[in-house]
Write a structure and sequence with these properties.
mainly beta, Elongation Factor Tu (Ef-tu), domain 3, elongated
């Protein structure tokens, strides 16, 4: 399995018990969707290695407590700290309407109600408190906040996202 065929689930942030249990900080607003996992890929030495899950539960509602098979002591759990977890893309629940996964809209055309076609979505900047569309407009970078009030329609068939940007926002980048 290659990383390009997977989505990021979360990061192992600390050990939970002397029996090798670990706590995972999930990258989701809906942690319950991961309670049925039987296995997960752990990134070790730039490779995705399958790990089978013996037991798991929510811990303080935002962390996932996992006991992996064959990880039965603190020393083995130490080797997993700060490691990233992944699952195959086909396990993502399908989203509809204006909901989308960031990876699925890369390459979509972004059009504004007033401006018209802005350009192609190159990436999503999710390292800031306000996530941003990074759009290429004829070689210039345009940043648009990802916000329910701005996104008017996601057309998966035409690979387009229709927005209504705040007045003057696009002009800041293109003047």
């Amino acid at each position: 399995m290659q990383k390009k065929d997977c989505f990021f689930v979360g990061t192992i942030v600390k050990k939970y018990s002397f029996k090798g249990e670990v706590l995972v900080k999930l990258d989701t607003d809906d942690p319950e969707q991961f309670l049925e996992m039987e296995s997960v890929f752990v990134e070790l030495h730039n490779k995705l290695i399958p790990f089978f899950i013996e037991s798991l539960s929510l811990h303080k509602s935002s962390l996932l407590r996992i006991q992996f098979e064959e990880v039965d002591d603190e020393e083995k759990a130490d080797g997993l700290l700060k490691k990233k977890l992944y699952l195959p893309l086909n396990l993502l629940p399908k989203l509809e309407g204006n909901q989308f996964y960031y990876h699925e809209v890369i390459g979509f055309t972004i059009s504004d109600k007033q401006f018209g076609t802005i350009g192609t979505l190159q990436s999503v900047n999710d390292s800031t408190p306000q996530h941003l569309f990074v759009i290429d407009h004829q070689g210039k970078e345009v940043l648009i906040p990802i916000n329910d009030d701005i996104i008017q329609k996601v057309d998966r068939t035409a690979k387009e996202i229709h927005i209504e940007a705040p007045e003057g926002l696009i002009d800041i980048y293109l003047s």
